[in-house]
Design brief:
Number of domains: 1
Shape: globular
Number of strands: 4
Distance between the termini: 33 Å
Structural class: alpha+beta
Helix content: 25-40%
CATH superfamily: Glutaredoxin
CATH architecture: 3-Layer(aba) Sandwich
Strand order of the largest sheet: 2-1-3-4
CATH topology: Glutaredoxin
Strand content: 15-25%
Largest sheet: 4 strands, mixed
Radius of gyration: 13 Å
Length: 98
Amino acid sequence: MKIIAYLKPVCGWSNGVRAVLQKYKLPYEDRDIINNQTDFNEMVRKTGQRLSPSVEIDGKVLADVSGDEVEAYLVSSGLIKQSDAPAAAPTDRACDTH
């Protein structure tokens, strides 16, 4: 499985996506859309919008998603078996400062 995650370095939503991918020990490419304009432009080209997080899983693009939504997609697609283990960070919220 190939996963590319278009994320912000510091963001509750982005950290939630990271937490889900780490919970299932899924390897992924973490693309920094704040500090790397090329990564941001690639996300916009693939998703047709500017919101993050956005995640590409084996060519399927999930735009403006939470960690919970990524997990639900992976489970419903049969790519992972649901785990009740807790994630290392909240998977469904913005940063506390937002």
